[in-house]
Automatic annotation (TrEMBL):
Record's keyword terms, sorted: Repeat, TPR repeat
CDD domains: StaR_like
Domain of life: Bacteria
Family: Belongs to the TTC38 family.
The protein's name: Tetratricopeptide repeat protein 38
Keyword Phosphoprotein: no
Length: 443
């Protein structure tokens, strides 16, 4: 039987379609190029090629977009009727959970799958992304730790596993080891934008802003190509560094340039756009009508049913654009089911709802209500979505709410908390200065 690059058997494949599949896996590994056309060509030539359908289903599911989710279901149905091996049926079981909105059940299914098939790179990478989408830092790290002994530098894809391990280490606060591992991955595969991104996160979390800017700019040719699916997110990280330096004008120029110049409708890119515009608003930047453009594009994705992390970022755009009816629509959708039917609905009710209520209150100037919602939400927000760097928008907004709402003690406490992690951040120093000035005036 034919096998992939790591030796996993592929049912229904031909020598020619295995080559197409391997190319598609590599494009997925590097987030670079078009895996969909490669996989569709493979199934056109070999209609019984199960893993080609499975990988397509995973790729569409990972988009966290309603139309893409429907496409993922179609590919899954095509795979289900084929003659598959035990490993491939295991992927079918995972997809059934994932497309039913039960992300943790899918992650656990892949935990067991990875233990049985530790060199199944597709299973490892999809599991890693699921861990990321549900903000499970421990499993981002430990999914790779459990299989690393089965890999070596001679195994195709070894650098990809190292890059994922690096990001998991970073999200768990093991910054030195994360950076060392990420740099090792990049030395083996310079185009690995996920490993690059992991090292970027280390520098962000440690407040090494100048190091981060240097890292991004010197390596720009490796991560900024037009065919790089992850390029906007890495540009977003560069903008964060400039915000930390108190340079919102530079960050706004990056928004107008590399972050939003193509008017991308990809959900990942739009999350970055919303998150950057919101931070710019908090920084006192005049963003003018940029919210209107972004809000209009969000309409195709923000259904309140698929992935609440996206809906929360859509709400930022709707608030900025003055489309408050859309905010209310999403809040109503989150409250429709008295008893959540799946994990996504639970996320919406338990995490999405207080975040949206908090951001809505902040936008309307009800800063005490915003602080009440967001202070509670900051402790549950990692039940879904994103990295520490992405979720920092909650604490930033909370701190700003405390300052604007004359909650002086809370503002000082939050500023001190932030400075303990990033003592040289100009933004954090500004928070403390403002809080201290307000405190001296009010006492």
């Amino acid at each position: 039987m034919l096998s992939d690059q790591q030796g996993n058997h592929l049912s229904g494949a031909t020598p020619e379609t295995v080559e197409l599949y391997n190319q598609a896996v590599t494009t997925f590994n590097l987030y670079r190029g078009d895996p969909f056309t490669l996989l569709d060509n493979a199934t056109e030539q070999a209609p019984g090629f199960g893993m080609a359908y499975v990988l397509n289903a995973y790729l569409y599911a990972m988009a966290t977009e309603p139309a893409a989710n429907a496409a993922a279901q179609q590919y899954l149905e095509k795979a289900k009727v084929l003659s598959l091996n035990k490993r491939e049926y295991s992927h079918i079981a995972t997809l059934n959970q994932l497309l039913s909105g039960n992300w943790t059940a899918a992650a656990i299914a892949l935990d067991h799958h990875n233990a049985a098939y530790p060199q199944d790179l597709v299973g490892l990478q999809v599991g890693h992304l699921i861990d990321f989408y549900r903000a499970n830092a421990r499993n981002l790290r430990d999914r790779m730790a459990r299989v690393l002994k089965h890999w070596s530098p001679e195994t195709p894809g070894y650098s990809i596993v190292l890059g994922m391990y690096s990001f998991g280490l970073e999200e768990c606060g093991h910054y030195a080891k994360a950076e060392e591992t990420g740099r090792q991955a990049i030395a083996l595969e310079p185009l690995d934008c996920w490993a690059h991104h992991a090292v970027t996160h280390v520098m962000e979390m440690q407040g090494r802003v100048q190091d981060g800017i240097g890292w991004m700019t010197t390596r720009e040719p490796y991560w900024s190509g037009d065919d790089n699916f992850f390029k906007v997110h890495n540009w977003w990280h560069l903008a964060l560094y400039h915000l930390d330096l108190g340079q919102p004008e530079t960050a706004l120029a990056l928004y107008d340039g590399q972050v939003r110049k193509d008017r991308s409708s990809v959900a990942l890119d739009m999350v970055d756009a919303s998150a950057l515009l919101w931070r710019l608003e908090l920084s006192g930047c005049e963003v003018a009508d940029r919210w209107q453009e972004l809000a209009k594009v969000w309409d195709q994705h923000a259904d309140g049913k698929l992935y609440p992390f996206n809906d929360w970022h859509a709400v930022m755009a709707y608030l900025g654009a003055g489309r408050h009816d859309e905010v209310e629509r999403l809040l109503t959708t989150f409250l429709q089911e008295n008893t959540p039917r799946n994990e996504v609905e639970l996320w919406a009710r338990q995490t999405g709802l207080p975040l949206i209520e908090g951001f809505k209150a902040f936008w309307h100037g009800d800063y005490k209500t915003a602080a009440d919602h967001l202070y509670k939400a900051r402790y549950i927000a990692n039940s879904f979505g994103g990295s520490h760097a992405q979720r920092d928008i909650i604490d930033w907004t909370l701190t700003e709410a405390a300052l604007r709402g004359n909650l002086t003690d809370l503002a000082q406490a939050l500023a001190n908390e932030r400075l303990a992690l990033k003592p040289h951040s100009i933004m954090n120093l500004s928070f403390l200065s403002r809080a201290s000035s307000a405190g001296s005036t009010s006492r």
